[in-house]
Amino acid sequence: MKLEWRPAAFDDRERIMDFITLDNPKAALDLDFLFEKQANKLVEQPRLHKLGRMKNTREAVVHPNYVLVYAVSANTVTILRVLHTSQAWPA
After folding, report:
1. In angstroms, rounded to a whole number, what is the distance separating the alpha carbons of residues 36 and 34?
2. pTM for this structure?
3. Is 60 helix (H, G, I), strand (E, B) or coil?
4. What is the pLDDT along the chain (91 residues), one digit of tens a residue?
5. What contacts 67, CB < 8 A, 6 or more positions away?
6. Omega before 90 cis (within 30°)?
7. Which domains occur in the chain, in start order?
8. How many CA atoms lie within 13 A of 40 on its CB side?
9. CA 68/CA 79 separation, integer angstroms
């Protein structure tokens, strides 16, 4: 199984890192590491996490405040979004 990040997920991740870096660069790096680590685990166990709020998605809590929204196909895990838990999802 392969891992794919959608552009929106990369944008989310970058925005989160930029925001956190303003106050705590190390915390931003640590969180980004968690995003990457969790995404790689999804390749091994793609159906481990709960069904998502949108059809055909799943959601993995990476940190109490952040969730990876992803989809699983026959051979790919696609990270769709990286969201703060306070964000409305779906919009």
Report:
1. 5
2. 0.91
3. strand
4. 999 999 999 999 999 999 999 999 999 999 999 999 999 999 999 998 999 999 999 999 998 999 999 999 999 999 999 999 888 777 6
5. 59, 60, 61, 82, 83, 85, 89
6. yes
7. 2-84 (3.30.2310.20)
8. 6
9. 7
